[in-house]
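Can't paste images in this forum, so I'm doing it all in text. The chain is below; anyone willing to post the predicted structure tokens underneath?
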Amino acid sequence: MALSPENIEFPDIQNGVQVHHPTFGVGKVIVRTGSDENSKVLVKFKEEGEKKLALKHAELFVEKVEEEPAEEEGGAG
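Text version of the structure:
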């Protein structure tokens, strides 16, 4: 089920987030401008360089970044 442009806000796609595009591959959001369906992003892709994209058409997905496990306090002793 496709969302209409009026319902798209893209809250997870912010500056510094790693994203995936079906054509350009993996990249990092450099700048996000605008709001709601008028949002645009400048993404630096690993292979394709920088691309300016309209979020409502870009089909960007946030890449899951594995977080390092937190170290336990107190240590062995």
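The CA atoms of residues 10 and 36 lie 7 Å apart. The first strand starts at residue 18 and ends at 21.
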